């Protein structure tokens, strides 16, 4: 087992915190932002943002347009490529999501924590016309949805789980989902495997039927990413039969 090193007992640098506050103010769907919008989102004064933008431009992270608006630059894409290559998650996750969707007929996704939100990292949509319209990169709140619950679950509790989380109407009143956390080396949480669909189709009873198949997929993904099997879920999946249900 890989031992997790403790984080250094130091605090962040104020100037670096301000730079990152500006950079992370950009959201999905933004093309370019005006200075006033950045000030509203960050709580920083315009003169401070302008000084920070000079450094961000110098490092290729931000581009200032002719009309004075700012947009993310190509260095962001390069860093994202480095991130993806380093983790090599897609090679492990995407084939499994394809398989889950084929076997269940529902949308299979993989979520990660993104600050105060959960972000859809990979997604294979259901073949049904009636489905939830969400794309990789979209964020959702850390609410009572199954995916959010899974992302809040430490390994010590997840190892004892005998069935996935299930939610109905937590984020969208017409949607249901089931989820399990996925861990890597050192019992570190990597993300959450999520199966979602319309509440009329992915009912609590249907989710109960899918428990063993879904648990097996989560166990397989945890192992392929170097994590330890979740004892409770492994025992449940090994039985290949449904147990008592619980919904939110």
Describe the structure.
By secondary structure, the protein is of the alpha+beta class. It has 2 domains: 66 residues, Winged helix-like DNA-binding domain superfamily/Winged helix DNA-binding domain (Arc Repressor Mutant, subunit A), CATH 1.10.10.10; 139 residues, Beta-Lactamase (2-Layer Sandwich). 41% of the residues lie in helices and 19% in strands. The chain has 9 helices and 8 strands. The strands form 2 sheets. The protein has a 6-stranded antiparallel sheet. Strands 1-2 form a two-stranded antiparallel ribbon. A hairpin with a 6-residue loop joins strand 6 and strand 7. The longest helix has 21 residues. The chain is elongated. It holds the Pfam family HTH_IclR. InterPro entries: GAF-like_dom_sf, HTH_MetabolicPath_Reg, Tscrpt_reg_IclR_C, Tscrpt_reg_IclR_N, WH-like_DNA-bd_sf, WH_DNA-bd_sf. One of its GO terms (biological process) is negative regulation of DNA-templated transcription. This is Transcriptional regulator. Keywords: DNA-binding, Transcription, Transcription regulation.
């Amino acid at each position: 087992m890989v031992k997790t090193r403790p984080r250094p007992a130091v605090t962040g640098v104020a100037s670096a915190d301000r730079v990152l506050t500006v950079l992370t103010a950009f959201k999905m769907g933004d093309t370019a932002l005006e200075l006033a919008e950045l000030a509203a989102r960050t709580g920083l004064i315009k003169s401070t943002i302008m000084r920070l933008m000079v450094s961000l431009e110098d490092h290729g992270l931000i581009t200032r347009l002719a009309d004075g608006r700012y947009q993310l630059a190509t260095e962001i894409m390069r860093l994202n490529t480095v991130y993806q290559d380093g983790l090599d998650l897609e090679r492990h996750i995407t084939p499994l999501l394809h398989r889950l969707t084929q076997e269940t007929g529902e949308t299979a996704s993989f979520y990660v924590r993104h600050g105060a939100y959960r972000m859809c990292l990979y997604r294979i949509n259901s073949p049904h016309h009636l489905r939830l319209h969400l794309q990789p990169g979209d964020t959702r709140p850390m609410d009572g949805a199954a995916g959010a619950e899974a992302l809040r679950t430490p390994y010590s509790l997840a190892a004892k789980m005998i069935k996935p989380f299930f939610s109905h109407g937590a984020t969208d009143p017409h949607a249901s989902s089931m989820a399990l956390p996925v861990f890597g080396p050192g019992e570190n949480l990597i993300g959450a495997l999520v199966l979602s669909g319309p509440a009329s189709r992915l009912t609590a009873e249907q989710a109960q039927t899918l428990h063993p198949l879904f648990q097996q997929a989560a166990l397989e993904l945890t192992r392929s990413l170097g994590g330890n099997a979740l004892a409770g879920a492994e025992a449940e999946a090994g039985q290949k039969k449904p147990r008592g249900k619980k919904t939110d």
